[in-house]
Specification:
single chain, alpha/beta, Oligo-1,6-glucosidase, domain 2, Immunoglobulin-like, eight-stranded parallel barrel, 23 strands, binds 3-O-alpha-D-glucopyranosyl-D-fructose
Length: 626
């Protein structure tokens, strides 16, 4: 297997290497020597040994070398500097995520918002899909018709280049979605397949009889049970059922076909050369289908991600991979390469359990599920980070918490159901103004939609005291995200307490997707209010700035510093230790508590209050922020 390293032959990648400048060729030869063993191993685990996998490896290496050879001098230099500082992305990292159109109209508009982002301490900007989307409904751009052509509504290739350069100059890394699991039904691969081209038919997963569909469906959960029931869509021209985990217009790719892996990774590397510095690997848990399983988190998913990482380490080692795997806590660490086949995998992963559990804690005024999640969260490998967040463009999915709920005796998931009713505002006494997602059946908990400030009661408050409580709830959740995360991610509008999308805007949007409730358009008036001392916007914004400042000043906030749950003695208080130096206490109750913080000290924490503490040389604890 290693013969391609030791026996010189005019293989495709060697030819590509010969075309590189001497300094790049030397560096690339080193990277290949380092990555080849893992690349070969993971590909042959996935595709079997033999000629076919050798050829695939050759082609992938040639593609990676070609990308590296063509990388702009600025990006090549960035790679080298990042290789020498693998912690580059951990120092005071703060993320922000937004839809290009809602945030700034188009890519050029985003350039004009860079100073705003800098004022929040942002180092990482995830713009939701901005490559060409399907005509008609497109799942907010997640039905991708072309991986490499900018969506015309949002700008041009030149605009993207301008944006990546401007962001880089501002110290902000641009993160782009890369939708691994599926393409739009009008992507050229799908068009070819529909037109009868067998080569492209083999790019997709298909079933050829109703019985086969039923056989798979037995074990498959549903992502959109109300609006897109089932996981297959019948295609009359193919006389077959195409696998469509999400919407019927999103066709799942067939990764059992090595050509799919080759095409997808090649496209991803080409996008890296446009100046994208991080990829959000959308719905990455679904890539591999195996009969008799729920077709999620299969070993091959991790082998393919590790092969992908090895290729990126050759082509563009300064680029980050982020797993978007909305899965139960115990399924997440393998995305950092901590699974059954250990090895470098993603640098970042969403901690969706922590996010959902912090909302449950708020509804219940009890931290037991959240604490269990923290206890089930292992330390991450060096150079990697949890991405923590309060809200994002998707619903809050409750089912990721089933294992923790069940371990605490909630076999019927009543607690998750209660939380979902609470945030939909249908539980007695609820202050929340959200809505249930994909849950016509009131007896199941699926997801909840709504902007954070609507969910914490900011817009239902009728007295100053209620408004204060709502604000404190919002800051409590953000303080937990900023304290715990390696990369805390803000969702556009939350920094200004922006409410749900207005009824008029909703009515004008295409499609029945309930998640539009928390996809409002930018409101400049709210942004201006952040400058006015005493306004809600100012209070949120300045607190987030203070969190960002603290994260920048202390290495204890690096993403690979372990965070552990410690005992708080109050069922409403989550207590965390971060490294040797920091402690955080988070009170999810409407009542104040006297909290023993250790070292013989007790602190009063207000309703929905929090405190971050640092141990000092005199053995007392210093309050960093509360
Ligand atoms: C991702 O989401 C995206 O974030 C969604 O916006 C897309 O609709 C979806 O992929 C399809 O591209 O399962 O692990 O609201 O949490 O669909 C990936 C449900 C996913 C999302 C879920 C999610």
């Amino acid at each position: 297997m290693s013969s391609s390293v030791s026996v010189p032959k005019a293989s495709a990648w060697r030819v590509a290497l010969m075309n590189a400048s001497p300094d790049r060729a030397d560096e690339l030869a080193k990277r290949i020597a380092q990555q080849l063993p893992i690349l070969q191993n993971r590909l042959s685990r996935t595709y079997g040994e033999g000629n076919q996998v050798e050829e695939l490896t050759e082609q992938l290496l040639a593609a990676a070398v070609d990308i590296a050879r063509k990388r702009s001098q600025a990006l090549w230099d960035l790679d080298l500097s990042r290789q020498s500082q693998p912690h580059w992305h951990q120092k005071g990292a703060v993320g922000y995520t937004a839809y290009v159109d809602h945030f700034a109209g188009n890519l050029r508009g985003v350039v004009d918002r860079i100073d705003y982002l800098k004022s929040l301490g942002v180092t990482y900007l995830h713009l939701l899909p901005f490559f060409k989307a399907a005509e008609g409904p497109n799942d907010g751009g997640f039905a991708v018709a072309n991986f490499e052509v900018v969506e015309p509504r949002l700008g041009t290739q030149a605009d993207l280049q301008l944006l990546t350069q401007a962001l880089r100059a501002a110290g902000i890394s641009l993160c782009s979605d890369f939708v691994l699991n599926h393409v739009a039904h009008d992507h050229e691969w799908a068009v070819e397949a529909r037109n009868g081209n067998p080569e492209f038919q083999n790019f997709f997963c298909m079933a050829h009889s109703q019985a086969e569909v039923d056989g798979w469906e037995k074990n498959l959960p549903q992502i959109f049970p109300d609006t897109a029931p089932g996981n297959f869509t019948y295609q009359p021209s193919l006389k077959a059922w195409v696998w469509t985990t999400f919407y019927p217009y999103q066709w799942d790719l067939n990764y059992a076909n090595p050509k799919v892996f080759f095409e997808v990774v090649s496209a991803m590397m080409r996008v890296a050369n446009m100046g994208v510095e991080a990829f959000r690997l959308d719905s990455t848990g679904f890539l591999w289908k195996r009969e008799g399983t729920n077709c999620q988190n299969q070993p091959e998913v991790h082998w393919l991600l590790q092969a992908m990482r090895a290729l990126m380490e050759i082509a563009c080692p300064g680029v980050l991979l982020k797993a978007e795997a909305i899965m139960p806590t115990h399924q997440l660490p393998p995305y950092f390469g901590l699974g059954e086949t250990p090895g470098p995998e993603c640098h970042l992963a969403y901690h969706s359990s922590m996010m959902a559990a912090s909302w449950v804690a708020l509804a219940e005024e009890n931290v037991s599920i959240l604490q269990a999640v923290m206890q089930n969260t292992p330390a991450v490998p060096q150079g990697s980070s949890w991405l923590t967040y309060v809200r994002c463009h998707d619903d809050i999915g409750w089912n990721v918490l089933r294992p923790e709920a069940q371990a605490l005796g909630d076999t019927h998931y009543q607690r998750l159901l209660n939380a979902s009713h609470f945030f939909a505002g249908i539980a007695p006494g609820s202050y929340a103004q959200g809505a249930s997602f994909q849950t016509t059946d009131l007896q199941t908990a699926h997801g909840t939609n709504g902007m954070a400030s609507a969910l914490v009661g900011m817009y239902s408050a009728s007295t100053p005291a209620d408004s204060q409580l709502a604000l404190d709830r919002l800051l409590l959740l953000q303080s937990l995200s900023y304290f715990t995360g390696g990369l805390p991610l803000l969702y556009m509008g939350d920094e200004l307490g922006m409410g749900n999308t207005s009824a008029e805007v909703l009515a004008a949007r295409q499609g029945p997707d309930g998640r539009e409730l928390h996809r409002p358009n930018w409101q400049e008036a709210l942004a201006q209010l952040r400058k006015q001392e005493g306004s809600v916007q100012h209070r949120i914004f300045s607190k987030l700035q203070a969190f960002a400042q603290l994260r920048k000043s202390l290495t204890a906030f690096h993403g690979d510093v372990p965070v552990n749950a410690i005992e708080s003695k109050h069922p409403t208080v989550l207590a965390l230790q971060r490294g040797a130096e920091l402690k955080g206490f988070f009170n999810f109750s409407r009542l104040p508590v006297d909290q023993d913080v250790g070292n013989g000290q007790t602190l009063a924490i207000k309703p929905y209050g929090f405190v971050w503490l640092q141990s000092s040389s005199s053995a007392t604890l210093r309050t960093l922020i509360d």
